[in-house]
Write a structure and sequence with these properties.
This protein is an alpha/beta fold and 592 residues long. The chain is built from 20 helices and 18 strands. The structure holds manganese (II) ion.
């Protein structure tokens, strides 16, 4: 290891480091001409890498850049673009309110269904409705509307039910609701089946004929649009207080991020506005939750939400009832909110233990007898249904092939969850064998299903054969594709501020992966926490030194110690606060 920068600068470009288990780096596509890059950078008065990031997103003019950096939070939807049925829904609910009929909000057990139910219930209550709410329990009746939840609502005096994030496939359940005298309004965003339930009205951007342009709206987003239209129509009615739906954008942002909706267009505007509002949220429970997770509420990112906040909200739902999360959002005082978060933290600890235990068992099964399968299908009666998705994701991480994890219950029915790699589309794979399942759903990269235990062998055989055919020429390559080249000298505090303006990151607005070529290593690399690597780098020929941390790349230490330059580095830059000191750190995902 050569520490002297002069010496390092003079050395040859090294041959790339390559290691088993380390991803191969796909360099970024070629840049636009310097003329175009410099013109756009000058237009926005920002660094060149920001111009490159904009150009990589197809944003080429000052006006488009402005629209991207300052998206409108929620442009009002006129008749031609409004949700199909929204006027009828508002009319019906106006009558419900005037007659004092009881209306119950029926959410679902995930964060999208919980935040949507919370904001709609709060809005209805504040508008003077006689409102109630209920959530299904996944171990006691299952998902969505069920005869059980409908009976309970009927007993509690409800005359109307509004579903949130669920219901568009509930043909029989809505029929049942009618038979016991409940009127149903469905709000949902899932793909609509050919035959729709006979509800009073259905709001869903994904039903045939709905002109709403944003087909990627979340379930809580549909509920929010209903609340917005309702409070607008009741505005000025004597005795009805005005409810500004915008104050619930924070809940909408939370549910939308948790549901992994595409973060471009309208969703980007809504989620950004909601994240901004969180710092000064009027929702006591949400404020307490953020405080307890230790995130910086004034500068929230989608990563904070997905890694620190939603796991807590999901924990109680995965282990049984999601009610704690909803009660948290309805909490009127901080002490009560803290008690709910206590419960969620305890559930999360339990969830993590289950997840680790189940993962170890699944890994052992694979090591024992499935190592040669092109697709992994593992099942057990001992695994917890609430964590099978997480375990499947871990199998994909470790073995880089499509993986299905199933939890079999005492009635001989298994719940399954699948995750996959590029090339193996889960929706297509399941659709081709739909006859094997009791129920199934999902998209290209994630799926869920239920299957009778006696069908598991046939399912495994079919999936392994399918994967073997798809990957006949070898497994999919383990690659990291960089977004743009960057000069490390542009990675400054100001540069990071610019980068924040691209948030929130997520599907269709991925966090950029920067690529720096011919980087100087500075100082001695070292291991931290057994398998992570810490080192420092700087641009060839000078500039500031930057700390770098490479999680799970500890096995590259020996190779790194023997060089003074790296051929390529792929990373996300971020602020790292350690012992009160704030420094820029590169979170490295690949080294060559
Ligand atoms: Mn949803």
């Amino acid at each position: 290891m050569i520490v002297s920068p002069e010496h390092a600068a003079a050395s040859e470009t090294p041959a790339p480091l390559a290691f088993e288990g380390a991803p191969r780096i796909v360099p970024p596509p070629p840049r636009e001409s310097d003329e175009i890059r410099r013109a756009l950078a000058a237009d926005i008065n920002g660094p060149l890498f920001v111009a490159d990031l904009l150009l990589a997103r197809g944003i080429r003019t000052k006006e488009d850049a402005r629209a991207f950096f300052l998206p409108e939070a929620a442009p009002a939807m006129d008749g031609a673009q409004a949700l199909l049925g929204i006027e009828r829904a508002v009319d019906l609910l106006g009558g419900v309110r005037a007659r004092g009929e009881r209306v119950a909000v029926h959410g679902d057990y995930d964060v999208d269904g919980v935040t949507g139910a919370a904001l709609l219930y709060l809005g209805l209550r504040d508008l003077g409705f006689d409102a109630d709410w209920i959530l299904p329990n996944r171990f006691d009746g299952g998902y969505g509307l069920t005869p059980r939840t409908l009976d309970q609502l009927k007993e509690r005096g409800a005359q109307w039910v509004i579903s949130v994030d669920t219901g568009v496939s509930a043909v029989e359940e809505v029929e049942y609701a009618r038979s016991i005298g409940l009127k149903v309004i469905i709000t949902d965003h899932h793909q609509a089946p050919p035959v729709l339930p006979s509800a009073e009205v259905i709001l869903n951007p994904n039903q045939p004929g709905c002109p709403y342009p944003n087909k990627g709206l979340s379930g809580c987003g549909v509920a929010w649009r209903l609340l917005e239209a309702l409070s607008e129509s009741l505005r000025g009615t004597p005795g009805v207080p005005f409810v500004d739906a915008a104050k619930h954008l924070d809940l909408l942002a939370l549910g939308s991020l948790a549901d992994n909706v595409p973060l471009h267009g309208e969703n980007r505007g809504l989620v950004r506005a909601g994240l901004r509002r969180m710092a000064a949220s009027q929702n006591v429970g949400l404020r307490v939750l953020l405080e307890r997770t230790g995130v910086d509420a004034a500068a929230l990112t989608s990563t904070d939400i997905l890694f620190k906040v939603t796991p807590l909200l999901n924990a109680t739902g995965r282990l049984g009832s999601p009610e704690t999360s909803l009660k948290l959002f309805l909490s009127a005082d901080e002490r009560e909110a803290h008690r709910h978060v206590d419960k969620m933290e305890a559930a999360n600890v339990k969830r993590r233990t289950l997840d680790q235990g189940n993962t170890l068992e699944a890994l052992a099964m694979v090591e024992e007898r499935l190592r040669d399968d092109a697709c992994l299908v593992v099942h057990s009666e001992a695994w917890h249904e609430g964590v099978i998705g997480i375990v499947a994701a871990r199998l994909v991480d470790k073995y880089r092939r499509p993986s299905f994890v199933l939890s079999v219950d005492e009635r001989g029915v298994a719940k399954g969850s699948g995750r996959t790699v590029r090339g193996f589309n889960l929706h297509e794979a399941l659709a081709a064998h739909a006859h094997l399942f009791e129920k199934w759903g999902g998209h290209a990269f994630a799926c869920g299903f239920s299957i009778r235990a006696e069908n598991i062998p046939a399912f495994r055989e079919a999936m392994v054969a399918r994967a073997a055919a798809i990957f006949a020429d070898g497994p999919p390559p383990h690659e990291v594709a960089a977004t743009v080249d960057v000069d490390l000298r542009e990675i400054t505090g100001d540069g990071l501020l610019w980068l924040r303006r691209f948030e929130p990151f997520g599907p269709r607005n991925e966090a950029p992966l920067f690529h720096a070529a011919d980087v100087e290593l500075y100082g001695v690399p070292r291991l931290v926490g057994e398998k992570h690597l810490k080192f420092s780098v700087r641009a060839p020929g000078g500039g500031q030194t930057l700390d770098a941390i490479a999680f799970n790349l500890g096995h590259m230490l020996d190779g790194l110690e023997q060089r003074d330059r790296l051929k390529r580095l792929v990373f996300h830059p971020e602020w790292n606060v350690f012992r009160g000191q704030k420094r820029i750190q590169l979170r490295v995902v690949a080294i060559e």
